[in-house]
# Entry
Amino acid sequence: MQTTTQIRKTFLDFFKREGHEHVASSPLVPLNDPTLMFTNAGMVQFKNVFTGNEQRPYKRAVTSQKCVRAGGKHNDLDNVGHTARHHTFFEMLGNFSFGDYFKAEAIDMAWRLVTKDYGLPADRLLVTVHSSDEDAAGLWKKIAGLPDEKILRIPTSDNFWSMGETGPCGPCSEIFYDHGEHIPGGPPGSPDEDGDRFIEIWNLVFMQFEQITKDERVDLPHPSIDTGMGLERIAAVLQGKHDNYDIDLMRTLIEAIAAAGGTDPDGPHQVSHRVIADHIRSCGFLIADGVLPSNEGRGYVLRRIMRRAMRHAHMMGVRDPIMHRLVPTLVHEMGQTFPELERAQALMTETLKLEEGRFRQMLDRGLRLLADETAGLAEGGTLPGEVAFKLYDTYGFPLDLTQDALRGQGMTVDTAGFNAAMERQRAEARKAWAGSGDAATEKVWFELQDRLGGTDFLGYATESAEGQI
Ligand code: ATP
Ligand code: MG
Ligand code: MG
Ligand code: MG
# Structure
């Protein structure tokens, strides 16, 4: 069996042979880009190279980029645990051309890597192109010899990639792997495309434009290439698994959770094991890149992810903090590829331990309140926004944690009511805030950081007292 490490190496080696510079992953907190919460794709570190605002000594690059999709335009937080293919943290393998090669070469290299070096059978593969892109459709036919029915023309934004509201963008062409008839789901573009039978493994973006504002789009100085292949997704295919959570790396994490919690990874709490395995990666990597839990911005997203994992540990019946005990496995599995994990091991451990310790006390009480409040609700019922807000305000339950807890019972939250309650509280807090708020909680984090030493980039910190828990 090819390990995830070998699969990453095959990708990097292939493109190095094709004249690409191997560039290291950039941090999860994008440098010089306030428009983006976290690095969500390989192209992020090259954004200014595509637009011509920055020059590099190479025209071709290859990377394995750390990505987090848990906020902003690409947000997969709610998918984790419920699909076979989504993580909040994942690695995106990518090759890039900055005004060098374009569509034909990109398609040719992708097809050779997938069918020769990775050895996937061509009859399991199909591709999509944007419906306006006859050029790409013709190239797939010519280069890969794919029949028409395996080249699907998609008119929607699914085949027009953009990083966020602004930034480089262009039509794209995606390679899908058919995991087989026994798995529910339809081909891309069909009504049940969200199933997991046809899984998108690689997106080739033909970078041609820059979105300047919502209404203004200009041509890039040179047509360029940006591609992204999910390492965990290709690993699943190559390891003969349907599900990302069954690959070597994820399985090791899942088993570490089971060992730490005394739980059965394949029993009734399978989803919770997956959620925790996913979230320990995003939490660990975010902390290593300088994000610390707080009540605003990036720190708040981290806190939400942590708390979601902690709720799932609680659901499995684990009563002692568990997250920090997974750090050694994470570092052992990924520290060689990402040495920042080794450097931040003590900080990750302490941060997770402290956060989980604090949250545990409230979790029990909050979940009891939630159970009381939902006892009178029918399946498909709606929890009043006020209650969700109380859970947030008093027990530190982020809204998505409450939603996640209710999802299993087919219930939802009145989010408009939640927002209204939040707005009211904000207005009151602003009135009351005269520079003497309780910044004690935040202080703990700064002290911790000082004591243990920060990482290269200390990231985002906040002293806001709003929504203090
Ligand atoms: P999907 O449609 O499956 O959500 P996407 O179209 O949002 O994927 P892209 O933005 O095209 O994904 O990202 C490029 C590649 O990164 C995808 O083809 C996939 O292999 C991988 N990828 C994207 N999102 C995730 C995720 N949340 N977890 C794991 N891999 C991902
Ligand atoms: Mg997606
Ligand atoms: Mg997609
Ligand atoms: Mg895609």
User: Anything to note?
Assistant: The CA atoms of residues 429 and 466 lie 7 Å apart. The first helix runs from residue 4 to 17.
